[in-house]
TrEMBL record, chain A:
All copies of domain UBC core, residue ranges: 4-153
One Pfam family hit: UQ_con
Keywords: Ubl conjugation pathway
The keyword Protein biosynthesis appears for this protein: no
Protein name in the entry: UBC-like protein
InterPro entries, sorted: Ub_conjugating_enzyme, UBC, UBQ-conjugating_enzyme/RWD
Source superkingdom: Eukaryota
Source organism: Exidia glandulosa HHB12029
Region (Disordered): 123-153
UniProtKB/TrEMBL annotation, chain B:
Enzyme class, broadest EC rank: transferase
Phylogenetic classification of the source organism: Eukaryota, Fungi, Dikarya, Basidiomycota, Agaricomycotina
Organism domain of life: Eukaryota
Name by which UniProt lists this protein: RBR-type E3 ubiquitin transferase
Organism, as annotated: Exidia glandulosa HHB12029
Residues covered by the RING-type domain: 160-374, 164-203
Length: 153, 554
């Protein structure tokens, strides 16, 4: 069976560029079917008002059967949001990117989920195990076995 | 290494336990009066052995099938539903029947089965085709509400028939869904199931739709996946069953498919018995705890303490395991390449002991220098060194010997691989038969087995209170160690056709002796447990300490 990622991503790309992009989300880079970059803002009142973040999506050939690898970009220009489920290296602990992933989900729905994860946050703080995790974290968060203790934050 | 059938692993032939889980009064107490299968070397069960039976995969499948058929006939459901229900209840048939009788709709929903499904057992495919078969108690499939973030109606429009939403094929060859009605193309289903089964090792797989908790029935998997994926799925179900059945354990050796059944190791016995079992391939493991190997003579709870300690202190202790050391005389680097502790420096011919680095000449008569932590020198050192330093040194003393036996066992096996090759060549060039060149194999197997025992005796000694019993224990340990080192050294003798008869005689004799010493070690420790002879210098799970000795840090 041919990789389904290109056909699926072609469709998602079309939707994102044809005005179906969620509000507060902008496609910054989508030159190939391996890595996309999107900017993300939380609209309305929130602890992150006025901040702009960037998300990097990496797709395997098995996408969307396999979940995409999604991280916040941390460089000169962007920082990872300070949030109990976001590590300072940009890794995100969200069940939707792990065992709760459904192949029906896509780039836009991941962005919406992350926006609402930030919007509902009550306290700007890093995960309690941030330092230890960042020191030993694998390059790809997909290799981490996150413990999804509390998805309501 | 592989083990041929005539090896003397007579454990598994001892008594046959029936494999069902009738834990009631089945055959837990069979006596040994039928001695037609008794081996010449062992005529009675040793005090360190327990009863168990090794089962083939097919035997487990039979049990699963029987359970499944019972559920099928009682509930009038199809095989896939029965399988999902049993897995959901952790294979506890009685509880399943009770709960189901009480409220079938609730049980079905919790098990990920839409409740309109129950059909006659004659309907094989759980694929949504005739939703009218039987009136259901409840028709709504509740969606999981675990994810509170963005209850997104999703940018993916649901019920629009534009082909497959996953791969975006607008004209797929075929579309299928589970009973929940979430339609996707067969290729996506196959790819999804393959990933879950092969890569993630899951046997309970949810529908591909977001937040849909309907589980994929067995028949759907069989229909959608290729034979290899389906047979892997069946294996996962089998492992799930074994993992949830108290008297069964899957052999932990990589890619081994045997299951051991044992009813003679209840948790209450674990403070006095080390329930070691062996599968038909010869893999020894503990039935009482997750340690993947034979940890006799140390009981599970203390073995766990030791491994935890080694894990916690691994950084400090790692240097000891290193494979090279310097000659104590000329400082040239020496690599240990065999299992024997007797080292000879290639450069200056100095002979020394790998473990204690002392001259080998002192070891001939005073071997115990090497198996006992020198309590006297340690007490002298107490004046000048801190307490923590001393306790670290005490630990390192035992750890060093522990690690050395592990390492040496590995090296002996590696060395033997070379020997075996040589023997095979000799078999061609000389008149020796295959049987005649087997003596070294027996020897290396015995060495490996005994080094495992020795390894754990050091962990045991670390936790034993000082007493006369401990001293006798250490005498046995020393005798076994000496015998094993001798045999190891013999194994390193270069083999040529001329010395084979002599070597063979010597090695066979020594192997028998080593085996005997190992039996004495295991038998004595096992009896010691039963007699309450061992007292630990640390609190042990399941054991109450009658007195609090002040000198516990000895
Ligand atoms: Zn598809
Ligand atoms: Zn569904
Ligand atoms: Zn095995
Ligand atoms: Zn154990
Ligand atoms: Zn030397
Ligand atoms: Zn020594």
């Amino acid at each position: 069976m041919a990789a389904i990622a290109p056909r699926r991503l072609t469709k998602e790309l079309k939707e994102l560029t044809m005005g179906e992009c969620p509000a507060g989300v902008q496609l910054l880079q989508s030159a190939d079917f391996e890595t996309w970059v999107l900017s993300l803002e939380v609209l309305g009142e929130s602890l992150y008002k006025g901040e702009v973040f960037a998300l990097r999506f990496r797709f395997e050939p098995q996408y969307p059967i396999a979940s995409p690898e999604v991280t916040f970009i941390v460089d000169d220009k962007f920082k990872a949001p300070i949030h109990p489920h976001v590590y300072s290296n940009g890794h995100i602990c969200a069940s939707i990117l792990g065992h709760e992933w459904s192949p029906v989900l896509g780039v836009a729905s991941v962005c919406i989920t992350l926006q609402s994860m930030l919007a509902s946050c009550k306290k700007r703080e890093r995960p309690p195990d941030n330092d230890r995790y960042v020191r030993t974290a694998p390059a790809s968060p997909k290799k981490s076995r996150f413990h999804y203790d509390d998805d309501t934050v | 290494m592989d083990y041929s059938d005539d090896d003397d692993y007579n454990y598994d032939s001892d008594e046959i336990m029936d494999g069902t889980q009738d834990d009631a009064s089945s055959v837990s107490e069979m006596d040994e009066d039928e001695d037609f299968h008794i081996q010449p070397t062992k005529d009675k069960k040793k005090s360190y052995e327990i009863d168990f039976d090794c089962l083939e995969q097919t035997a487990i499948q039979d049990i699963i099938r029987a359970d499944s058929e019972q559920i099928i006939s009682i509930f009038n459901v199809d095989a896939s539903t029965a399988s999902l229900l049993l897995r959901h209840m952790g294979w506890n048939k009685e509880r399943l029947i009770e709960k189901y009788m009480d409220n079938p709709a609730q049980v079905l929903e919790a098990a990920g089965i839409p409740s309109q499904q129950p059909a006659g057992p004659s309907q094989p495919a759980p694929i949504r085709s005739n939703p009218s078969t039987r009136q259901a108690t409840s028709t709504v499939i509740r969606r999981s509400t675990r994810r509170s973030t963005a209850d997104s109606k999703a940018p993916v429009a649901p019920l629009t028939p534009v082909g497959c939403l996953i791969c975006c094929d607008e004209n797929p060859a075929s579309m299928t869904s589970l009973m929940c009605g979430h339609n996707f193309c067969s290729e996506c289903w196959a790819e999804y199931l393959k990933g879950k089964i092969r890569d993630e090792g899951e046997c309970s797989i949810k529908c591909m739709a977001e937040d849909c908790s309907v589980l994929v029935p067995d028949a759907f998997i069989k229909e959608t996946c290729d034979a290899a994926v389906y047979s892997r799925f069946e294996e996962l179900v089998l492992r799930h069953f074994v993992a949830h059945t108290k008297n069964l354990k899957y052999c932990p050796a990589p890619s081994c498919v045997y299951t051991v059944s044992c009813t003679s190791a209840p948790p209450s016995s674990l403070t006095t018995v080390v329930p070691t079992v062996v599968c038909k391939k010869g893999h020894a493991f503990c039935f009482g705890c997750p340690i993947e190997g034979d940890h006799r003579p140390l009981i599970c709870a203390v073995a766990k303490l030791w491994l935890q300690k080694c894990h916690d202190d691994s950084e400090t202790a790692n240097w000891i395991k290193s494979n090279t050391k310097e000659c104590t005389k000329c400082q040239s680097t020496i690599e240990k390449n065999g299992g024997c502790n007797h080292m000879t420096c290639r450069k200056c011919k100095h002979e020394f002991c790998w473990v204690c680095m002392g001259p080998w000449s002192e070891h001939g008569t005073a071997w115990y220098n090497c198996n006992r932590f020198d309590e006297k020198s340690s007490s002298e050192a107490r004046d000048t060194q801190s307490k923590s330093r001393i306790s670290l040194e005490r630990y390192l003393h035992y750890y060093n010997r522990w690690a050395n036996h592990e390492q040496s066992a590995k090296l002996s096996v590696e060395l033997y691989a070379k020997t075996e090759k040589k023997m095979e060549e000799m078999q061609i060039t000389s008149s020796l038969t295959w049987i005649e060149v087997q003596f070294a194999r027996k020897a290396v197997e015995e060495v490996e087995r005994c080094r495992t025992t020795l390894k754990w005796t050091y962990a045991m000694a670390y936790y034993l209170d000082r007493s006369n019993a401990k001293e006798l224990f250490e005498d046995n340990q020393r005798d076994l160690e000496k015998a094993v080192e001798d045999l190891s050294e013999l194994l390193e003798t270069p083999i040529d056709p001329e010395n084979i008869p002599m070597l063979r005689q010597k090695m066979t004799d020594k192997t028998v002796y080593v085996q005997k010493r190992n039996e004495i070690m295991l038998e004595d420790t096992a009896n010691g447990y039963l007699e309450g002879r061992w007292s630990w210098n640390t609190p042990v799970e399941g054991i109450e300490r009658d007195e609090e000795p002040a000198s516990s840090s000895a």
